[in-house]
Amino acid sequence: MDDRMECNQQDRMTEWMSLALDHLLGETEERQLQHHLDACPQCQEEWALMQEASTLFEQSMMVGPPLGFAIRVERRLEAKTRQRRRLFGGIAVLTGSLSLAGVALAALALMVLGGVLWSKSGAFAEIQQSTRVVSTLASGMGLVGKGASLFLKDILLSYGGPVLLLSGIGLIALVGIWIWVYSRQPGNSHKNGVL
After folding, report:
1. Residue 62 pLDDT level (bands cut at 50, 70, 90)
2. The model scores a pTM over 0.85
3. Virtual torsion, Cα 9, 14, 19, 25, nearest 10 deg
4. Are 14 and 20 within 8 A, CB to CB?
5. Dist. CA 152–CA 93, nearest whole Å
6. For residue 88, what are the contacts with CB-CB under 8 A and spacing of at least 6?
7. Which of these ranges, 29-43, 53-67, 130-144, has the smallest mean pLDDT?
8. Are the C-beta atoms of 125 and 89 separated by less than 8 Å?
């Protein structure tokens, strides 16, 4: 059986020993530590081992990173940044293409809807007669120009307000998406995502 008494201040003394090795212990605590070490064989043994380990560390040569380590790390970081930029560029091209396709499909759908409404609206003879002038002027542009001018005239007369409102909302949504994509782009100076 071990005759030594268990130290009741082991944790605090271990902390103080560590601070004393780093020359960070205050004078009062250093005196208390020395007084405790004089009376506690268990802490004396731990103090001797800690001093021995500290001496070994102080005598060891400092080893730096291998030659070219920083350059390799920088190259890897640059490669990852380029890869992220390519990804965001692809997303930008994709969203731009989808935006253009959406606009084209919406225009086509509106033209078809306008044509259907035009053929069904026999009651609006005065509107049809007033658009004949526009139709005659557009005949030089071909069938697409003629259809577009008739359709736009009809849409503007009938649904001008809602069409402008929906176009504005769509435009604001597209601008919002582009701002969001731009703010998330790697290497951008706006790191927090706020313009």
Report:
1. confident
2. no
3. 20
4. no
5. 30
6. 181, 184, 185, 186
7. 130-144
8. no
Tokens (6 digits) for 22: 């780093």
- What pLDDT digit, counting tens, does each position of 74-130 carry? 999 999 988 888 888 778 777 877 777 777 778 777 777 776 666 666 545 555 555
Residue 32 has pLDDT above 80, yes or no: yes
Domain definitions of the chain by residue range: 10-59, 85-183
- Would you say 37 and 73 are in contact if contact means Cβ atoms under 8 Å apart? no
Question: Distance (Å, rounded) from C-alpha 63 to C-alpha 70?
Answer: 15
Whole-angstrom distance, CA of residue 46 vs CA of residue 66: 35
Sequence letter at residue 38? D
Considering the chain, what is the average pLDDT of its residues? 76
Return the number of other C-beta atoms located less than 10 Å from residue 39's C-beta: 9
Which residues are within 8 A (CB) of 40 and not within 5 positions of it... i.e. 6 or more apart?
Answer: 7, 9, 13
For 128-150, letters b (16+ CB in 10 Å) and e give eeebeeebeebeeeeeeebbbbb
